[in-house]
Amino acid sequence: MGPQVFLDLLEQHGFNFFTGVPCSLFAGVTRILDADPRYGYVGAVREDSALGIAAGAYLGGRQPVVFMQNSGLGVSVNALVSLNQIYDIPALVVTSWRGRGGADAPEHLVMGAIMEDFLRVLQMPFATLVPSTMNADVAALTRLMRETGKPVALVVGKGLLE
Amino acid sequence: MTRADAVARAADAVPARGLVIACNGMIGRELYAHGDAPSRFYMIGSMGLAASIGLGLALARPSRIVVVFDGDGNLLMNLGALATIAAAGPANFYHVVFDNGAHGSTGDQRTVSDRVPLDRVAGAAGYRSAVRASDERELDRALNALFSTPGPSLLLVEVDRGNQPGIGRVEPSPRELTARFRRAAASR
């Protein structure tokens, strides 16, 4: 699998609006989004702003994806809980997992260690990207997102979408 | 002029098929009190994100006029969104900022907009136009011109501090607001 396969899969599941803030762990995806105007990718300045842009796109009938580094999840807390969750505005949040397993730069270690707990506290259903189960996981997350109207997360580790 | 008066004048000037995103705090409540419609989306939380929401909406629905009702405190909270809007350049995006130089909903604590002119910030960022209105006459004249020229445009309205006593809250639940707004935005 590669970034294009991943983007194709998202489109197959109806995602048709792309915004976010880059991370090295999915740099391959952002490279394609930046290069191909077909995607209409909106590079945001902050992750909560990206969630706002995605929310506006949803209000306009789109099904948005928001890409962010997991540090950006911290920036996004208020948007997730006081916009997406109370207004029933869904989004697929594709977040990297810097700091996973304690092997990363110091600024990523705390968020890396609490990542799964953090998503649970935020009441965000999530799956961790594994190539062998990717199809089923994206399908299940998308279904849940549509049924509940809430944001869901797909967690991307190292070596998959760079 | 009072903010409630300015909000009412701006609301009445929005073209019939316009979609309005109102920021959280008193501005949304004053818009709701002036007149409700499914094409008006009132934020009650996530301060700072009205402009970002308006951008996503404007990009998703390029055939509809999108008007963001914002405040100086709200805009300053996510000022970087101005750059994203200017760079994306949606011609259907209109940004009306009611500037009282204060956080009106929390007790009129001062912002920095008396020293940092937000209309000039928007112009420097790359909005196609950015103008300021300081009284009723200037506001009405600016509103007359606003929607007949392509955006992204910003109209900054200088308003007095202070809140309308006894103003109500937005009654529909957040999820009702989402559902009805999506229907209004989808209609031709």
Helix and strand arrangement:
The complex is a heterodimer of chains A (162) and B (188).
Chain A: H1 3-12, E1 17-20, H2 27-35, E2 42-43, H3 47-59, E3 64-68, H4 70-75, H5 77-87, E4 92-96, H6 106-121, E5 126-128, H7 134-148, E6 152-156
Parallel strand pairs in A: 1-2, 1-3, 3-4, 4-6, 5-6
Helix pairs in contact in A: 3-5
Chain B: H1 3-13, E1 19-22, H2 26-34, E2 40-42, H3 50-60, E3 66-71, H4 72-77, H5 80-88, E4 93-99, E5 102-103, E6 109-110, H6 118-125, E7 129-133, H7 136-146, E8 153-158, H8 174-186
Parallel strand pairs in B: 1-2, 1-3, 3-4, 4-8, 7-8
Antiparallel strand pairs in B: 5-6
Helix pairs in contact in B: 1-2, 1-7
Would you kindly provide a written description of the structure presented here, covering whatever features stand out?
The complex is a heterodimer of chains A (162) and B (188). Chain A has one domain (7-129, 136-156): Thiamin diphosphate (ThDP)-binding fold, Pyr/PP domains (Rossmann fold), CATH 3.40.50.970. Helices cover 49% and strands 15% of the residues of chain A. Chain A has seven helices and six strands; from the N terminus they run H-E-H-E-H-E-H-H-E-H-E-H-E. In chain A, helix 2 (27-35) links the parallel strand 1 and strand 2 (42-43). The model of chain A has no long low-confidence stretch (mean pLDDT 97). Chain B has one domain: 3-Layer(aba) Sandwich (Rossmann fold). Chain B contains eight helices and eight strands; from the N terminus they run αβαβαβααβββαβαβα. Chain B has helices spanning 3-13, 26-34, 50-60, 72-77, 80-88, 118-125, 136-146, 174-186, and strands spanning 19-22, 40-42, 66-71, 93-99, 102-103, 109-110, 129-133, 153-158. In chain B, helix 1 (3-13) packs across helix 2 (26-34).
Series of secondary-structure elements of chain B, N-terminal to C-terminal: HEHEHEHHEEEHEHEH
What is the multimeric organization of the chains shown?
A: heterodimer
Instruction: State mean pLDDT of chain B (0 to 100 scale).
Output: 97
Total strand segments of chain A: 6
Q: Might you state the CATH topology name of chain B?
A: Rossmann fold
CATH homologous superfamily label of chain B: Thiamin diphosphate (ThDP)-binding fold, Pyr/PP domains
Shape of chain B: globular
**CATH architecture term of chain B:** 3-Layer(aba) Sandwich
Question: Would you identify the regions of chain A where 5 or more consecutive residues have pLDDT less than 50?
Answer: none
